[in-house]
Amino acid sequence: MAGKRAAPGAVKAKAKAASPAAAAPAQPSMAQSATSAAVGGLCNVLLGQPFDTVKVRLQTQTKDQRVFTGALDCFVKTVRNEGFLALYKGTSGAFVSIMTENIVLLTANTGIKAAMQALHKDESPLSLGELALCGGLAGIFSATAITPAEVVKCRLQVSRSVSYGCDSQLKYTGPLDCVVKTVKTEGVGGLFRGLGSVLARDLPFNFVFLGSYEAVIQAMQQFRGLNTTKDELNSLEILTAGGLAGTIGWAVIFPIDVVKSRLQTTTKQETMLSVARSIFAAEGLMAFYRGCSAALLRAFPANAGLFFGYEMAQRWLFRRDAIVYDVN
After folding, report:
1. What does the pLDDT read at residue 320?
2. Is residue 229 part of a domain?
């Protein structure tokens, strides 16, 4: 038994012959989704973590313990007092969180889209509204999966190695130390602190985020021509679509993220509503937008990297699996 690799033209010709024009695009396998999501998550963390650290530090400082005046001040003081690598505090937690989130989110999203497609009596593609709804529902699964890693990430980010002239109640040497101390003082439930706020953030976020991504991708395809597929879009177009989707999503849900960060970095038994009321009563409406500039600055490069890594890995895996062998 012997085989030979077909020429690239033959691969393309066979693929086109086997796929009618109206057929739905091929869906990735679970292994392909997981691998691509991990690559996208790595790109997301490397590009976005410094901005995320600044965002969380701004979100969690209270009115009577104001340390930073804004995103730039936080960035400068953090680097000056703790070194550049302090901006990557919580990176291990962030990577675990984002990788887990992407794997669960994209796998669940694929399954929900397939189920929704099955409800169509004809083979018409899902509308933008349906695609966005699938993303929102998938957020239920991803939010539950990432909450422990989110708690660890946020607590490490606000744990300061030097004094800034105010009391720092949380101090951990690393992710494992944070997990051990959290479970010891608060029980296993402490790792799921703020789950409600994560759900309240991620359901609307993924509805807007994935819906916006699909909308921008479709607009780019229409601009290029009716027969253009997503795989034919270039790197700049994928980066732009991912960046815009991330920026739009974060702009919509940021106040909920402030509540989540406060809830996950406190050891007190509080609810999402009680935290929101306390913030509003003590600091006013603008406190819900503290750190927003850092979040939006992070959103574009981080999510551009996320979708670029995901789409490029996906294309590579599909090309690898599309190699045709003639068996004698």
Report:
1. 67
2. yes
